[in-house]
Amino acid sequence: MQTLLTSTQMRLADEFTIANKPIASIDLMETAARAFVKVFLRNEFDTNKSVAIFCGKGNNGGDGLAIAHLLLNNGYENIKVYVINFSKKKSADFAINLQRLDESRCKKVVIDRATDFKNIKADIIIDAILGSGLNKALEGEYAELVKQINNLNKKVYSVDVPTGFFAEGRLTADYNGIVAYKTICFQRPKISFFFPESKLATKSYEVVEIGLDEDFVQKQESEFYLVEKKDIEKILKPRENFSHKGTYGHALIIAGNSNTMGAALLSSMACLHTGAGLTTACIPQSGLIALNATLPEVMALPRDEYTRIENPTKYQAIAIGPGLGISAEHERLLESLFAANLPLIIDADALNILSERPDLIEKIPEQSILTPHMKEFDRLFGEHSNWWDRLQTAKNQSVRLKIVIVLKNQYTFVCSPNGKVYINPTGNPAMAQGGMGDVLTGIIAAFVAQKYSSLNAAILACFVHGQTGDQLADDKFVVTASQVAKEISGVIKTMVP
Ligand SMILES: NC(=O)C1=CN([C@@H]2O[C@H](COP(=O)(O)OP(=O)(O)OC[C@H]3O[C@@H](n4cnc5c(N)ncnc54)[C@H](O)[C@@H]3O)[C@@H](O)[C@H]2O)[C@@H](O)CC1
């Protein structure tokens, strides 16, 4: 897992590296600039293009000056640096790089006021005005300057973070910072990049290594971790010799209704392909033919309004909710499962039932896994106007109720009872289609059945679900839920030790 750091922690990592490694602060800045330029050159290899580099007077601006130098050395002839002189304060490394620039042949313009700034003819803009040192929203001259830069409608590359964008914390819809085409950020992605609001600030981002002390970075106390493929490979267990269906657990999927039987089929299909030893679908009579015709390996437990799950302990995982329908009978069924006090996987309509019965939320069995999307989450725990606040609530509720909350989005947040948030990096917009959540629920159920802990099951499921979608999206505009369910086993195979 990559530990994600706040801006303050990044500054500490910077100081620690300078104090403990044989590297001076100005050389660390040079390394960062070089790493930026490497990516920039890969994206914009045409040295005939003209580049305008806007530099503030802090270290972000210092990076910009070093980048100007490097681009000149890499054959870009048409480079112009705009020094934003709105404050007297300047950082020491900015001052060193400004002197270096003054000794070079690079063109430089000093901007004392936003109105000094006239039409810029450059093909590309590099934004190094303010970086992670941002301490308040842009206003006055900075806000005006940024507005003018955005109005140029040029391709903007931001250094480390778009000017005006908070690297962590609440993001509001009235964002007035730089709108970047790409942000090339240092050592770790910014926590804010995982929130949907970040699309107002940058279309994409790429992280570059700048030589900060990795051990120090990794050991920082953090609430946010980014899951990596190597973590998944470490958690996944191979199928053992002499094992049998009993080894891999029995999953029960309580799902489907007359008009939403597909949800039960998708969930069961995903559970099957993720390796549960046995899968039983608890569905209404009306779905039996469909189930038997499409998923012969899955057993049926026909459901009517009086159904209770007799002997729930015979299942190693019980998931409830996909396409279930909301009714008094289903409410009673959920309540009876809670009474058995076994961890459950709770999705879709089971979540909607809970949002109508706040008293039941208090009775969710510990170690259960809830898989809400944004709307389901807000129905359960209250309206939120931004993702930062929503995630804080998810974190707090996970700790309070001792449950795992899988808050679904392009980057899904897995909130654990230990207060940590594990961010899933896989998945893509081609997967934005009905049924995808049902598949995720089936995958989680299969991992729980195979005796992974609730947290690991959720982390594994989100990763392989997204990874399967990513592989399918390589040559597809849209990826359907059943395609993901069917391919999942092949993807897991590539990651099992
Ligand atoms: N690990 C690190 O921390 C490294 C950081 N580097 C660069 O250093 C940057 C951070 O540099 P600094 O801490 O000098 O800060 P910045 O260069 O981001 O900002 C400079 C100063 O602007 C002022 N300011 C903040 N918000 C403002 C606002 N809304 N309006 C007007 N002024 C405002 C603050 O006084 C701040 O110190 C990073 O983003 C990165 O580009 C790199 O040089 C190398 C390593």
From TrEMBL:
<keyword id="KW-0520">NAD</keyword>
<keyword id="KW-0547">Nucleotide-binding</keyword>
<feature type="binding site">
    <location>
        <position position="323"/>
    </location>
    <ligand>
        <name>(6S)-NADPHX</name>
    </ligand>
</feature>
<feature type="domain" description="YjeF C-terminal">
    <location>
        <begin position="228"/>
        <end position="495"/>
    </location>
</feature>
<feature type="binding site">
    <location>
        <position position="127"/>
    </location>
    <ligand>
        <name>K(+)</name>
    </ligand>
</feature>
<feature type="binding site">
    <location>
        <position position="373"/>
    </location>
    <ligand>
        <name>(6S)-NADPHX</name>
    </ligand>
</feature>
<keyword id="KW-0456">Lyase</keyword>
<feature type="domain" description="YjeF N-terminal">
    <location>
        <begin position="10"/>
        <end position="218"/>
    </location>
</feature>
<feature type="binding site">
    <location>
        <position position="437"/>
    </location>
    <ligand>
        <name>AMP</name>
    </ligand>
</feature>
<dbReference type="InterPro" id="IPR029056">
    <property type="entry name" value="Ribokinase-like"/>
</dbReference>
<keyword id="KW-0521">NADP</keyword>
<keyword id="KW-0511">Multifunctional enzyme</keyword>
<feature type="binding site">
    <location>
        <begin position="131"/>
        <end position="137"/>
    </location>
    <ligand>
        <name>(6S)-NADPHX</name>
    </ligand>
</feature>
<comment type="subunit">
    <text>Homotetramer.</text>
</comment>
<comment type="similarity">
    <text>Belongs to the NnrE/AIBP family.</text>
</comment>
<feature type="binding site">
    <location>
        <position position="163"/>
    </location>
    <ligand>
        <name>K(+)</name>
    </ligand>
</feature>
<comment type="similarity">
    <text>Belongs to the NnrD/CARKD family.</text>
</comment>
<keyword id="KW-0479">Metal-binding</keyword>
<feature type="binding site">
    <location>
        <position position="263"/>
    </location>
    <ligand>
        <name>(6S)-NADPHX</name>
    </ligand>
</feature>
<feature type="binding site">
    <location>
        <begin position="59"/>
        <end position="63"/>
    </location>
    <ligand>
        <name>(6S)-NADPHX</name>
    </ligand>
</feature>
<keyword id="KW-0067">ATP-binding</keyword>
<dbReference type="InterPro" id="IPR004443">
    <property type="entry name" value="YjeF_N_dom"/>
</dbReference>
<feature type="binding site">
    <location>
        <position position="438"/>
    </location>
    <ligand>
        <name>(6S)-NADPHX</name>
    </ligand>
</feature>
<feature type="binding site">
    <location>
        <begin position="408"/>
        <end position="412"/>
    </location>
    <ligand>
        <name>AMP</name>
    </ligand>
</feature>
<comment type="function">
    <text>Catalyzes the epimerization of the S- and R-forms of NAD(P)HX, a damaged form of NAD(P)H that is a result of enzymatic or heat-dependent hydration. This is a prerequisite for the S-specific NAD(P)H-hydrate dehydratase to allow the repair of both epimers of NAD(P)HX.</text>
</comment>
<protein>
    <recommendedName>
        <fullName>Bifunctional NAD(P)H-hydrate repair enzyme</fullName>
        <ecNumber>4.2.1.136</ecNumber>
        <ecNumber>5.1.99.6</ecNumber>
    </recommendedName>
</protein>
<keyword id="KW-0413">Isomerase</keyword>
<keyword id="KW-0630">Potassium</keyword>
<dbReference type="InterPro" id="IPR017953">
    <property type="entry name" value="Carbohydrate_kinase_pred_CS"/>
</dbReference>
<dbReference type="InterPro" id="IPR036652">
    <property type="entry name" value="YjeF_N_dom_sf"/>
</dbReference>
<feature type="binding site">
    <location>
        <position position="142"/>
    </location>
    <ligand>
        <name>(6S)-NADPHX</name>
    </ligand>
</feature>
<feature type="binding site">
    <location>
        <position position="60"/>
    </location>
    <ligand>
        <name>K(+)</name>
    </ligand>
</feature>
<feature type="binding site">
    <location>
        <position position="160"/>
    </location>
    <ligand>
        <name>(6S)-NADPHX</name>
    </ligand>
</feature>
<dbReference type="Pfam" id="PF01256">
    <property type="entry name" value="Carb_kinase"/>
</dbReference>
<dbReference type="InterPro" id="IPR030677">
    <property type="entry name" value="Nnr"/>
</dbReference>
<dbReference type="Pfam" id="PF03853">
    <property type="entry name" value="YjeF_N"/>
</dbReference>
<comment type="function">
    <text>Catalyzes the dehydration of the S-form of NAD(P)HX at the expense of ADP, which is converted to AMP. Together with NAD(P)HX epimerase, which catalyzes the epimerization of the S- and R-forms, the enzyme allows the repair of both epimers of NAD(P)HX, a damaged form of NAD(P)H that is a result of enzymatic or heat-dependent hydration.</text>
</comment>
<dbReference type="InterPro" id="IPR000631">
    <property type="entry name" value="CARKD"/>
</dbReference>
